[in-house]
What does this fold into?
Amino acid sequence: MSVLPRNVPASTDLHEVRWLRSSYSTGANNCVETARPRSGPAAGLLAVRDSKQPTGPALLFSHRSWTGFLTAL
It folds into this structure.
């Protein structure tokens, strides 16, 4: 069984991804952005980064983990 990565040190390491913000986000740049990598070790996971640090780290979540997190909120 392979272990899925939990983060990447720089979100720019995720190539060919489209980062999205919530439609509820303001222009103050104080939100998170999400992307779904289609290739590489993070393929199929949800990447989440701080919009204030677009070259900073990104956390990686499986669909099940992300759903559980949102349900707990």
Notes: The mean pLDDT is 88. The first helix runs from residue 63 to 72.
